[in-house]
Amino acid sequence: MPIEYTVDDARRLVWAIGRGTLTGDDVMGYQRDVWSSPEVKGYNELMDLREVERIDMASAKRLKELASLSASMDAPAQSKFAIVASKDEAFGLSRMYETYRRLEDRSTKQVGVFRTMDEAWEFLGLKP
Question: For the whole model, what pTM was predicted?
Fold first, then answer.
């Protein structure tokens, strides 16, 4: 499975790890499966893309659709979404996603894209 995740209720965090080749369908499926659950509404999110070798996202339009879907599933309360992407391709696409999320009026998640896990943990205000 390209995206595996765990739910840490104590820290109110969904921690996901991407591996191998990620497709637009993988990411959309993860978004729908995880964030449609009322148990995680308002949780922070950590997406670790360091083990992703390739991203097969059909177009920038698909990335914008993902941002729109994600924003539509946000809880009313503010939360944070940290993306860790050490490789240039994943980092660049993640930054595009961050921009699209910021442009979504419905978005209540603050998205940050980082090269290291330490930066992501700091952004989330959590300890590893």
Answer: 0.95
> What is the identity of the amino acid at 52?
V
Instruction: Return phi, psi of residue 60, to 5°.
Output: -65, -30
* pLDDT tens digits, 56-78: 876 788 899 999 999 999 999 99
Spatial separation of the C-alpha atoms in residues 20 and 103, rounded to whole Å: 29
Going by C-alpha positions, the residue among 64, 57, 59 that lies closest to residue 99 is 64
Taking Cα atoms as reference points, which of 60, 59, 84, 81 lies closest to residue 70?
81
Q: Total domain count for the chain? A: 1
CATH code for the domain of 41? 3.30.750.24
